[in-house]
From TrEMBL:
This protein's UniProt keywords: Membrane, Transmembrane, Transmembrane helix
Superkingdom of the source species: Bacteria
Residue intervals of the Glycosyltransferase 2-like domain: 51-130
Entry's transmembrane regions: 6-22
Protein name (record): Glycosyltransferase 2-like domain-containing protein
Listed InterPro entries: Glyco_trans_2-like, Nucleotide-diphossugar_trans
Pfam family, one: Glycos_transf_2
Lineage: Bacteria, Bacillati, Bacillota, Clostridia, Eubacteriales
Length: 153
């Protein structure tokens, strides 16, 4: 009787191991979507590279399996960044928030831009990119290289 019980225990453990082995193998072939991510981009006076940035993010969003929401906050640009973003919004899917130019400059204004952008993000995971703090010569390609290469895998 004890030998039969021993064989039964071994059979149950073997079935249990095969079940988890099959589950692990199926994970290689069946991708579950990642968590939804909001990408919050705060920019100011970025007319030379804003079109490239939006096109690159839209192209990347189509190729990845993660659900990406793009929120762009224009912090009172003095050049034609606002007009470029308005035209791009008709073609690409992203949320655009423009802040007025007449508001006082300084630290309080920077915090207001971030807080306003966070209010428009609908996902719990938010990746923040503040392009106002980067030099103008730095292309958007260099800024987003890490995000695009990692692919949130």
């Amino acid at each position: 009787m004890w030998s039969v019980m021993g064989y039964m225990v071994i059979l149950v453990l073997a079935c249990y191991g095969v079940y988890y082995l099959v589950q692990d193998l199926l994970r290689f072939f069946i991708y579950e979507p990642g968590p939804p991510v909001s990408l919050l981009v705060v920019l100011q006076d970025r007319a030379p590279d804003v079109e490239y940035l939006i096109r690159k993010m839209d192209n990347w969003r189509k190729q990845q399996w993660v659900e990406l929401e793009l929120v762009v906050v224009d912090d009172g640009s003095k050049d034609d960044t606002t007009e470029i973003l308005g035209k791009l919004q008709q073609k690409y899917s992203f949320r655009l928030i423009t802040l007025e130019k007449e508001q006082p400059a300084g630290e309080a204004r920077g915090e207001q831009a971030l807080q306003t952008g966070l209010l428009y993000c609908h996902n719990a995971l938010v990746w923040l990119v503040d392009l106002r703090k980067l030099p103008q010569g730095l292309q958007a390609d260099k800024v987003f290289r890490v995000f695009l290469c990692q692919g949130w895998r």
